[in-house]
Amino acid sequence: MLKISVLGAGLVGSAIAIDLNKKFDVSVYDINAGRLQFLTKEHGLKVQTADLSVASEIHRAVAQADIVVNALPGFMGFNTLKEIILAGKNVVDISFSPEDAFELDELAKEKGVTAIVDCGVAPGMGNILCGYHNARMEMTDYKCYVGGLPFRRQWPFQYKAVFSPIDVIEEYTRPARFVQNGQVVVRPALSDVELVNFAPVGTLEAFNTDGLRTLIKTMNIPNMVEKTLRYPGTAEYMMVLRETGLFDTQEIEVKGTKIRPVDVAAQLLFPKWKLDPKEKEFTIMRVMCRGSEQGKEVEYVYDLFDVTDTQAGTTSMARTTGYTCTAAVNLVAVGLYTQKGISPPEYIATTQENFEFIMNYLAQRNVNYRVKKQEINQ
To answer: Is the predicted pLDDT of residue 377 greater than 80, yes or no?
Structure first.
C-alpha cells in the first residue's frame, strides 16, 4: 500500500487526509496537537506532531512517503515544497504560496520529482478546465468567478474564513494580475467591482484578486481574469482596512513596542471570521472558456454550487479544494500522470482520460460541475 504524508491538519488538510486514508497508508503532521488528536480519535489516522517550519522536521515527515501533500499555509508553502523536492518525493501542493513555483522546476527535474502545485479549487479546478479546453480549441477568453461564504450573513463582515485566514488577508493585499488583449495588467486587489447574480444565492460582489497565477505563464490566451466572490459591500470595507494600514507587514512602533499592523488585524479579525460549530457554508464558482472550435465561436460555462457536508462535518471549501488535490494524488499514484518538474493543474488534465478521471472522482464525492456549451453569434 502506498504511503502518503499529509503536511498540515487544517480544515482542508484534514479533509485530504480522511479521503486518502480510504485507499492509502496516510500519516498526518502538524504542530497543532488538538487537530491531530481529532483526526486520530474520530478517523483513526496516524498522526505526529511536527514543527514544519524546520527543514529537518519536514524531511522526517516525508522520509517514508511515496507521495506528499503540502497543505500548509501560503507563507510556509514555498520553503516546504523545496524541502519535499530536495527529499526526492512526488508532491501535490495546495499551499498557494506567493512565490513562483517554477523557480523549483529545474530542481524537481534533477530530483526526478513530479510536483503538482496550486491544485485546489481556484487555483486548481479552474486551471484544469482551462487547460483541458485550451488543448481542444483556440481560446480567446478565460474568466473565473469563485468564493466561499457562510449562509448566515452576520454583521459586520458577512464572511467566515474557510481556509487559512492569513491567506484571506493576502487576497486583499497582493496586487492582482490579469491578461487583457494579450498584455499582463496589474491592478490593486479588490478593484473593478461588479455585481453578478448566481442561483440559488442571489447577487454577489466580484472583484480582482491574484488568482490566475501560473495561467499567466502557461496559457497563450488573450483575455484572462479571476475574481473573488463575496457578499456586496465587502470590497469597500476591506479597502478601508487596507488603506488605513491595518494589513501592512512593516513594523511600526506603538508605545515603545514594535509590531506589525497585520498581526494586530489578524488577532482581531480571525475570531470573528471563525465558523461556528455546525455552521453551514458554500462554495460557488463559475468558469467560462471561450474560443474557436471546429470553425465556430463557442463558450463553455461550468457552474459549481457546493455546500457543507454536515454528516461528515466537512466544509464545502475543504471538499472542493481537498478533493481536487486527492484526485491529483490518485493520478500520480496509478501512473496516469508522471511528468517530472513543476506541473500546474492546467498540465495534468489535457488528456481526455485524465480529465474524465478527475471529473468522475469529484462527482463520486458529490462535487458536481454543471457544464453548458453555447455557440456565440457574431
So the answer is: no
d(CA 324, CA 234): 28
Q: Considering the entire predicted model, what is its pTM?
A: 0.93
Strand extents, DSSP E, 202-265? 202-208, 223-230, 252-254, 257-259
Query: Looking at 101-152, which runs of residues are DSSP E strands?
Result: 114-116, 138-150
Q: Tell me the C-alpha distance between 15 and 313, whole Å.
A: 10
Between CA 273 and CA 50 the distance in angstroms is 26
**Dihedral (CA of 7, 9, 15, 17) sign:** positive
What type of residue sits at position 179?
V
* pLDDT at residue number 376: 84
Q: How many CB atoms within 10 Å of residue 275?
A: 17
**Domains identified in the chain and CATH numbers:** 3-119+317-368 (3.40.50.720), 125-307 (3.30.360.10)
What is d(CA 226, CA 235) in angstroms, rounded to the nearest whole number?
15
Give per-residue pLDDT as tens, 346-359. 999 999 999 999 99
| Burial class for 47, CB neighbours closer than 10 Å (0-12, 13-18, 19+) | buried
End-to-end Cα distance, the chain? 55
